[in-house]
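Board notes (copied after class):
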Amino acid sequence: MRNDDRCIDDDAPTGVFARPSAPPAPPPRHLTDDRLWDANDVAKYVKVSRSWVYHRAEAGLLPCIRVGGLLRFDSAAIRADARGELPSSKRAAAVPKKNRG
């Protein structure tokens, strides 16, 4: 069976190749967008426990942002830190000192 139609596949069991009607959906935007991450997101990305994330952030070894009493993390900074691109002075500056009152 020879046909010049590009949708025919002579090697297929049915002899017909069906193209998908719509392009595949893009992958979900999880952990790749520009939103702030929480400790769970960081732990999942770095493949460590959530307590490890909190300990490193409180020690100034992981860049974080304080939002009220919560710790949030800039995804770009976490990626750079994981690749070893973030200098240690930036890590320490990212965690503000607690007010003692």
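Comment from the instructor: The longest strand covers residues 70-74. The beta strands are 36-37, 65-67, 70-74.
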